[in-house]
Amino acid sequence: MNAIYGLFPDTNSARRAVAALRAASSRFHFNSKAIVVMSSEPLEEEGFGWEEERTRIGWFAPLGALVGAGVGYTLSAFTQRSYPLPTGGMPIVAMWPTGIIMYELTMLGAIVTTILTFVISTGLPNYKKRLYDPEVTNGKILVGVSELDSDYRAELEQLLYQDGAEQVKEFSKD
Amino acid sequence: MATNDAAQASVMDMTPEKVRKDLLLPVFHTSRRYYLLVFVLVAIGLPGMFVYVYQMSEGMGVAGITRPVFWGFYITNFVFWIGISHAGTLISAILRLVNAGWRRPVTRCAEAITVFALAIGAQYPIIHLGRAWLFFWLIPYPSERGIWPNFRSPLVWDFFAITTYLTGSLTFLLLPIIPDWAMVRDRATGLRKRVYTVLALGWRGTPREWHRLEVAMRIMAVTILPVAISVHTIVSWDFAMAPVPMWHSTVFGPYFVAGAIFSGIAALIIVMALVRKALHLEEYLKPIHFSNLGKLLLVMSLLWIYFIFAERLTVWYGNQPAEMAAFWSIQRGRFAVLFWTMVWCNFLIPFPILAIKKLRTIAGTVVASSTIVVGMWLERFLIVVPPLEHKYLPYDWGSYRPTWVEITITVGTLMGMILLYVLFAKFVPIISIWELKGKDHAEPVGEHANASANPVAVRLDGTLPSTSS
């Protein structure tokens, strides 16, 4: 067995279960990082998800924007110099058109970086067999322990039921 | 505000099972009427495709565009559809940023319009090319002949602007669909399950996934707004950068953006009303949603008439002969009927409907929106064609009449747009299920950002913070 989890009907019981699992982690010899939670809607306001380490993913978008701006300038300036169009004493690399291309590619850089950041930081797409239960999308909240020593299965099952789990299930990658 | 809250509260009062059942029904159940609708749309739209092939084989001579009017229906349609595309992403992004609770049933309807209208609109420059198989010449890349793209041309700016906006809008639409696709995946069987398994990307709903999704959506909402503004500004510069009477105007940028938002909201109201009726979503898309959008439409109607007045007054006061020729052809010449129809459609009819609370019902806003969509298409036509007919040298004046080829292709793409939307509503819950039931998640600040604000905070990956801290 790789994991044991309970399906909870509401956030209160799920929160209690997480607290109980956290308190029991040393007794049942599992790392508190092995506690997993899944839900069909964001539960940040319910006490799930606000991490102590603040995420820095918001900074990647400006970085992507800077890269986009650089690409925009390089593309338009290099192109205009390679095929010069002398126009009435105006500079070959025209400032305003170059600025417009830079602007659009700046925004494109931010957008593409946001997509990449989302994909990389969530690990999606991932089609491997992983701990999950379709009941999550029925509104149930999954709380469990992954990578568990099977010696404590019965105790954990009892703990999850005590905190309000409607069902307790096991999950194996095999 | 109280009514907005009441509308959201009534949705919150529904059981999650009911919400899921109602909103997933169209995905799992296909009625005969749906097939009939798809058949009708294909039947009306398909001739447009055949006629387009005919145009490609015969050449652009079969279209009505001749010297000196080289831009006709196709460019009118291009500007019109890019304008319609401003419905979704712009409105959705603004409402997301201000955390407007009533936005939830509206956003996906709106975002889908953006993507499909852009896809349809972006086809028109290619249709207009004549030799469509050389469309890749629009893409700025060094060709084998050593000719590099001219970045001073607004047409090249269009390429970048539309590409950026389409990428952003598609992302803005697709990211929040992932949890809903996971919901369909968990209920589907057979081939449908396999398809939705791929589409859901392995979404599980861990706190990390939810958090990343919400952060990404916030970044996208901030990013997409200036892009949306820039797109229609750049489309306006296709005209304003040319020394053509009545085009070379500094007001064109904001005038086009305002017009785009105006037509976009109108299109959104029509689509919402149709979706509400067809998918029986009366409990989700309520009169208050139409009333709120109607108020926005009212503001945009006033803004539109202001721009029309400011632009025309400046031309009239300048009294330049070339500009006055185009001006009078619109005001009291052969385009006068179209001009005054436009004024009635965009202002005189919708204004009282939208201004009087009793008339700002679902039916009222749909009537107003329908006239506005027609009026805004006429506006695009009147911007494109009359000035080209009356350039600076009178011996070079001409006239434009659309041919059956242009009309058929125009109708075909309209049907294509509706078909894309109908198919979308079949494969994707048209209202975001997880957002509908969710709460507003304001970014925590100060000590509230700390996990200790909650007794049992959980890390983003679903794990607990370490006890040693």
Sequence-ordered SSE layout with sheet pairings:
The complex is a heterodimer of chains A (174) and B (469).
Chain A: E1 3-8, H1 11-24, E2 35-38, H2 60-82, H3 95-122, E3 141-146, H4 153-162, E4 167-171
Antiparallel strand pairs in A: 1-3, 1-4, 2-3
Chain B: H1 2-13, H2 16-28, H3 32-58, H4 73-84, H5 88-97, H6 104-129, H7 154-174, H8 177-185, H9 190-200, H10 207-240, H11 252-278, H12 287-318, H13 321-331, H14 336-348, H15 350-355, H16 362-389, H17 404-427, H18 433-437
Helix pairs in contact in B: 3-17, 4-6, 4-11, 4-16, 5-6, 5-10, 6-7, 6-11, 6-17, 7-10, 8-9, 10-11, 11-12, 11-16, 13-14, 13-16, 14-16
Task: Note down, in words, how this protein is organized.
- The complex is a heterodimer of chains A (174) and B (469).
- Chain A is α+β, with helices and mostly antiparallel strands and 174 residues long.
- Chain A has two domains: 3-39 and 139-171, Alpha-Beta Plaits (2-Layer Sandwich), CATH 3.30.70; 57-122.
- In chain A, 43% of the residues lie in helices and 12% in strands.
- A four-stranded antiparallel sheet of chain A has the order 2-3-1-4, covered by helices on one side.
- Chain A starts with a strand and ends with a strand.
- With 469 residues, chain B is mostly helical.
- Chain B has a single domain, classed as Formate dehydrogenase/DMSO reductase fold.
- Chain B has helices at 2-13, 16-28, 32-58, 73-84, 88-97, 104-129, 154-174, 177-185, 190-200, 207-240, 252-278, 287-318, 321-331, 336-348, 350-355, 362-389, 404-427, 433-437.
- At the A-B interface, helix 1, strand 2, helix 2 and helix 3 of A face helix 2, helix 7, helix 8 and helix 10 of B.
